[in-house]
Design brief:
globular, Rossmann fold, 42% helix, Chemotaxis Receptor Methyltransferase Cher, domain 1, 12 helices
């Protein structure tokens, strides 16, 4: 039997509580993700890494990761521990709000800069692009710029290909598929690829939401959805401060509908469910009334 003070990994190596706590602290300090209560998951996923590296223990693995000056092993560890679930037009009300409220308010204001934070395998930033193109037509190609970031290089590599199974495209209209996608043939049968002109609208890059930097933005819209639920309140506060600092006056922050900014100091104006605005240019009150009528008051 496995001792109660340890956990056997997929590689057959026991993970002891002190080793799990070390890994938990490493992940928390690096990107704010708290793995508390997830020792079985950590043991199983990192056990595969240990087997691949032919290491005798989780302690040896941690030593190897911390001693890697390139940071590549640390990134691989985070990749293995993070779960990425997304889909096209997930939480569709945000994209309706983008089309019906945000974009009309940006008419004639030059570029439209949008940040898809924690973009996972790319469905979100591509959905943003599809929505803006659907609303603005050819004008979108000269105005839209999307920055799509994630801490996982694994999902970013997938996102950059823009290649998705046909079965995942049910939320897209036939017209949108014709405008935005190319149907695969031969070895790519059953798949579609995002058209090159649309890919050019999106810049994918690795990014840690804990990092403070002035190299991103400012943005008229920031999507940061379904990621803060994995952070404790202190980390949420730091992440929201970072996001707000990159938001243009009058810009919008969209979070997951299962998330809330309650208890977070942010200085943003509540508009409607999971939607906030940075006070500044334009009439916040008129936008709030419009959003409330479309989506219901808080």
């Amino acid at each position: 039997m496995t001792p109660v003070d340890s956990m056997e990994s997929a590689a057959g190596i026991e993970m002891r509580p002190r080793e799990f706590e070390r890994i938990r602290q490493m992940a928390y300090q690096f990107c704010g993700v708290d793995l508390k209560g997830k020792q079985i998951l950590v043991s199983a996923r990192l056990g595969k890494k240990i087997r691949h590296l032919k290491l005798p223990s989780f302690t040896e693995y941690c030593d190897r990761v911390e001693g890697d000056a390139s940071g590549a092993l640390f990134t691989e560890m985070i990749d293995a521990l993070t779960t990425n679930h997304t889909s096209f037009f997930r939480e569709a009300r945000h994209f309706e709000f983008l089309r019906n409220t945000i974009l009309p308010g940006l008419t004639g204001q030059g570029g439209i800069n949008i940040w898809s934070a924690a973009c996972s395998t790319g469905e979100e930033p591509y959905t943003i692009a599809f929505s803006v193109i659907d609303a603005l037509g050819s004008e979108a190609y000269s105005r839209l710029s999307i920055t799509a970031t994630d801490i996982s290089t694994r999902v970013l590599d997938k996102a950059k290909t823009g290649l998705y199974p046909l079965a995942s495209l049910g939320a897209l209209s036939a017209e949108m598929r014709r405008e935005c996608l190319m149907k695969g043939t031969g070895e790519y049968a059953g798949q579609c690829m995002v058209k090159p002109a649309i890919k050019k609208l999106i810049t994918f890059q690795q990014w840690n939401l804990m990092h403070k930097s002035t190299s991103l933005g400012p943005f008229e819209v920031i999507f940061c959805r379904n990621v803060m639920i994995y952070f404790d309140q202190e980390t949420q506060q730091n992440v929201v401060e970072n996001l707000v600092s990159r938001l243009s006056p009058g810009g919008y922050l969209l979070i997951g509908h299962a998330e809330s900014l309650n208890g977070i100091n942010h200085g943003l104006e509540y508009i409607c469910s999971a939607t906030y605005r940075n006070p500044g240019a334009g009439s916040v009150r008129s936008t709030r009334r419009q959003g409330a009528s479309q989506n219901g008051a808080r």
